[in-house]
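input
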Amino acid sequence: MTPPDPTGAEAHFRALESLYAAAPINRLFESRLEIPESGLARIHFEIQETHYHAAGAAHGTSYFKMLDDAAFYAANSLVTDRFLLTTAFNLLLTRPLRAGPVVAEGRWISGQRRVFVADARLIGPDGEEAARGTGTFMRSQIPLAGLPGYRAA
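output
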């Protein structure tokens, strides 16, 4: 038996997951977006040695990408018509990450009109937090429905 097609919020979440997977930048990173509910997003990410800086741990660009993506998609899960844009993002890097699985968990905090605020944290393979970040996001003029990849799976 074929499961029913998702509708409403579920369809939006699956379409955002598809949009994430279709983004060209994500060909450079082994990662997967999961949106289990409105205002919550998880990026399952694999740190590889190709992400290392000269001292043998993940470069800050990897931290930023995972944190920004998780917070962004947590916020965009609340918006069904427009693509959001990151307007500011603050990072706190507390532990080095080395090769292995990492989860970035983003949560919407406030705002639903002009500015959305969401935060995210990185959890390393040992279950410990390695970083956190907070971002602000605004609605763009870009309709989600017009973006390649935005479709229910």
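quick obs: Strands lie at 31-37, 40-47, 82-93, 100-110, 115-123, 129-143.
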